[in-house]
Amino acid sequence: MIKPIVQKKEAFKVMGISVETSNENEMTAQAKIPSLWDRFYQEEIYKQIPALNHTVYGVYSDYTTDVNDAYQMTIGLEVDKDTQANKWVTKTIPASQYLVFTSKKGPIAQIVVELWQEIWNYCKENNIKRSYTGDFEVYDERCADPGNAQVEVYIAIQE
Q1: What is the pLDDT of residues 52-77, one digit of tens each?
Q2: Is the pTM of this model over 0.90?
Q3: Cα(138)–Cα(152) distance, rounded to whole angstroms?
Q4: 93 has which bridge partners?
Q5: Vertex 59, ends 47 and 5: CA angle to 5°?
Q6: What count of other Cβ atoms lies within 10 Å of the Cβ of residue 91?
């Protein structure tokens, strides 16, 4: 794993589709996140959002408590802060200090799961105090080839 860096990021707004789930649920046959991704691309939702750019975000927000409980997963694109939600969900990711983790290159479904395993282990081993205000995955031009992609995951931490 590439050592994470600390980065301050300003608030931004993502618009897309959302589901409530938990990590425990995602380890079962009833996992909701894979079908959310399928819907996002099959219905071409990315073409219907007035996005600022083409970067896709996987946003984790509205945590009940922490990594062990329910949270909201939103897949979408960044929009202007004044953009009003029509039929889509909007999430504002607050300004925060983040630990930024970068995956190795490989098949997207595999590298994201592996990176999250590394993040959980890293946070536990290093006693990282997460704030659970909003974490997100970044799918930019490095993900153009899903078979050889690289993603970043931003974990909000207490300052």
Answers
A1: 999 999 999 999 998 889 999 999 99
A2: yes
A3: 5
A4: 12
A5: 120
A6: 22
Q: Give tens-digit pLDDT for 2-58.
A: 789 999 999 999 999 999 999 999 988 999 999 999 999 999 999 999 999 999 999
143-to-81, 109, 127, 136 alpha-carbon distances in Å = 25, 11, 31, 15
Q: Maximum distance among all alpha carbons in the chain?
A: 43
Q: Are residues 60 and 134 in contact, defined by beta-carbon separation less than 8 angstroms?
A: yes
Asked if the model's pLDDT at residue 85 lies above 80, the reply is: no
- Of the pLDDT bands very low, low, confident and very high (cuts 50, 70, 90), residue 158 is very high
Report how far residue 27's alpha carbon sits from residue 24's, in angstroms, rounded to the nearest whole number.
Answer: 5
Closest CA to 77 of 113, 44, 102: 44
Extended strands (E) in the chain: 5-9, 12-21, 56-61, 71-79, 89-93, 96-102, 135-139, 152-157
What residue type is assigned to position 30 of the chain?
Answer: Q
Say whether pLDDT at 135 is over 80: yes
